[in-house]
Amino acid sequence: MSERVVVVAGALCRAGRLLAARRSAPAQLAGRWELPGGKLEPGESPEQALVRELYEELGVRAEPLRRIEGEWPLGRPGYVLQVWTARLISGEPRPLEDHDALRWLAPDEMDAVDWLDHDRPAVAEAARLLRQG
Ligand code: 523
Asked: ipTM score here?
């Protein structure tokens, strides 16, 4: 049995758009787009990990809003992806760590970027929520 590792990601929304971040590493993921986030550290709740990751990676303070239902197994054994919608509290996102580009996508622009495979279901749900307003 491999250890269970939770990776959290944020569907960060502002003014009806979703933030997409382009990975700069590792080589096999570079150039693909994702919902920013990362692995839980020991003792962290998923929400705490998300707040930390969004600060480290984008330099912003953000607030998790609600979990997008579901959990997606990742390529590595034991790894699962969980996604929260989130809103910005302060700061303007910048690609500080692990990313080299950011885009705010409107609900009808979700296909404009090459999302990581495992992010696609959560991105579709985030787009649906954005359309609902
Ligand atoms: N994903 C993924 N989608 C997504 C994230 C944030 C991560 O598919 N939105 C995958 C990519 C990696 C694994 O989850 O295979 C870990 O993500 P990573 O590298 O962003 O997390 P870190 O930086 O916490 O992990 P290490 O690079 O291993 O330190």
From this structure: 0.95
